[in-house]
Amino acid sequence: MTKIIKEIMKVVPEEKISDACFEGANIVLYSKKKDFVLEPGTCIKEAVDLIKKRVELRPDPSLTADLEIAEKEIRSLIPEEAGLQQIIFDPQRSRVIIEAEKPGIAIGKQGATLYEIKKRTFWVPIVRRSPPIRCQLIENIRLVLYQHSDYRRKFLDKIGHRIYDGWQRGKKQEWVRLSVLGAGRQVGRSCFLLQTPESRIMLDCGIDPAGVTGAEYPYFEAPEFNINDLDAVIISHSHLDHCGFLPYLYKFGYRGPTYCTAPTRDIMALLQLDMIKIARMDGKEPLYSSDDVKETLKHTICVDYDEVSDITPDVRITLYNAGHIIGSAMIHLHIGNGLHNMLYTGDMKFGRTTLLDPAVTQFPRLESMIIESTYGGKDNNYPTHFECENQFISIITKTLERRGRVLLPVLGVGRAQEVLLVLEELFRTGRLAEVPVYIDGMVWDVTAIHSAYPEFLNTNVRKLIFHKDHNPFLAPMFKHIGSGKERQQVMEETGPCVVLATSGMLVGGPSVQYLKFFAPSERNSLVFTSYQGEGSLGRRIQHGEREIVFDYGASSKPELVKINMEIETIEGLSGHSSRKELMSFLYRCMPRPKKIIVNHGESSRCLDFASSIHKQYRIETVSPRNLEVVRVK
């Protein structure tokens, strides 16, 4: 029995506990005593107060009712108006997941229905909202987790032992250092290695989607990185430049945990699988297989915003809303017993958008910060949201008047949903004449994931989604393109319309096919709403290139495409903070850090932003290049 369990048994009657194990940082007690399971008194609360960790009491699996009987009881207890969708049992952990359209009704007043289910079946009920838009990917992810429930239980227990076996042991010499394995003075392949005497933690593990050959991946050849020493990976959000290389770790034997929010887990898997698919379509060997993505899912631990979670003996994390895309998180690391507190912002947006609340600025303690600088240059201030809407109206109206079509290459996550909401509002309020909006690529699946996690969206959108009839993502003008045949029909037969398609940088995906078809006509418009990476086709067109050669290799002749369509860029819909917003974020940040590390920006922007922070706030700043190491403490 570990030391921390012995401490718990000082206040919890040991004879009533049949098993005690870890689920990551959580401690789970199982009991065969029915009365104790239903009415444990105050002892669990006393245990939490004593050790300052989460402790949960569950019925021993031997107490749980037969699956058929339990399902019948649950169906009889859940009111019809709750819209019960499915019931999934997790036998190893005595839990039952109940998916319903209206979770509040399923839970009952003050949890009365849940208590009755537990009392009658001795299964612990967990109610989840069923997605308004059916998403095969979400179902597949949950299936992977349930199929490997036994493995997950052992894996989570092993993580708990790693965290707690040295609980309250004596202090070692204390220091914190940070190795930059990617995103040092560049946008893309974000990856940091945080090292303490006790821990090796990776912050993000991305690729550079627009990178030149040889510069797409993090520097795993750095001498301080050893996959066998890695304790944990934390993913800030699901864009590929922050998570696209993660399954590669599992391909080469990493079996530790990856921490992120639930929407990040789902969208991350979708984008990784899409990356494999695109590589195969382009005749390239993928970096990893779908089995490696599955392995990643098996080892992913979801953490909610504001939830404090121990991840190693000397590091605990808290994730805060970053405002960038759904589920995006700023990672607060509490290192040592009060030794050092660091914030890694990942990509963040300090400004209210149609979709999300702005990034959080209040933290318990903060000594250092790693901050992005995608738009950190002194000239990177873009128009207001209202001005962007007017620009949108003008471009779309002009294009439709000349019987043209508007192509919006979008990042499948974040910008696409932001643009959909802006368009829906403009149509609904009559500021824009209604036309069909075709959604192609992974945008539809990602939108379904947004509907599945409304609690991560801002209040306005959340209210709309909770009322199915007003879900803005289900507006009638939005048409899902589900096949190559449907795509061909839109290109060849459809009149004036708007097309949203991935990828956002025109480096693959359906957006490139639409571009080839729409580009020769002056009636059509190409509108960029997201960052265009260096070297990407999108950046080249933005900078004036008007003749593009598509080389398909030895199999066919190169194709020359002339770009005659109108080219526009709308900056203000970005999910990144402008220069003004970045400075405003630092001004409002409480407490203010003593050291700031600037990353994730083109070299000139990183250096300019770092210099400006130092001048304005007299804070020590550094903008390390890739492979440099910064001693933080």
Write up what this structure looks like:
The chain has three domains: 64-130, 2-Layer Sandwich (GMP Synthetase, Chain A, domain 3), CATH 3.30.300.20; 173-379 and 576-631, 4-Layer Sandwich (Metallo-beta-lactamase, Chain A); 389-573, Rossmann fold (3-Layer(aba) Sandwich), CATH 3.40.50.10890. Helix content is 33%, strand content 21%. The protein has a seven-stranded mixed β-sheet. A seven-stranded mixed β-sheet has the order 13-14-15-16-17-26-27. The chain has a six-stranded parallel β-sheet with strand order 20-19-21-18-22-25. Strand 4 (84-90) and strand 5 form a beta hairpin. The two termini are 35 Å apart. The protein contains 21 helices and 28 strands. Helix 4 packs antiparallel against helix 6 and helix 11 (262-281) packs antiparallel against helix 15 (443-452). It is of the alpha/beta class.
Q: State the helicity in percent bands.
A: 25-40%
Q: Describe the largest sheet.
A: 7 strands, mixed
**Through-space gap between termini:** 35 Å
Strand order of the largest sheet: 12-11-10-9-8-7-28
The CATH architecture of the largest domain is 4-Layer Sandwich
What structural class is derived from the secondary structure elements? alpha/beta
- Beta strands, count: 28
Whole-number tally of structural domains: 3
Strand content: 15-25%
Tally of helical segments: 21
Shape: globular
Might you state the CATH topology name of the largest domain? Metallo-beta-lactamase, Chain A
